[in-house]
Here is the input.
Amino acid sequence: MYHERQELMRCAVSTLNNLLQSQVFSSSDLDDLCYTLTPFSFKEVNPHKSFWGVGNYDVNVLTVALESKGYTVQWFNAGKDVETIDLNKLFGIILNIELERSWAGSLVLDSRHGLALRRFDGRGGKWYNLDSLLDAP
Here is the structure.
């Protein structure tokens, strides 16, 4: 089972690759998608990624990346009943969760983190947490 660990704030790269089970996308690929979404932005300033060049790509970039590989993205939010989701029809799930991170032991920052869940038919149809912050699924 392919499991890529995250670098910097590039959880979107690892989430996509873990979901697709190979190194399909790089941060450079997602940067290019950012400029496709907003072609007239300055190189350093793009609304779809971090100003500092460390990732933090938004959901639009993930959507375009998956659609470029022939996948359909279906949105789900907390306002919907989870019972309406037919897990048998899904290839995978991408979650966007809130994390609390501390920096230098005293400054606490809230941030978002993306992770992939995927079912593997060859493994008894079990769902696996492919979170790039974990050592292993």
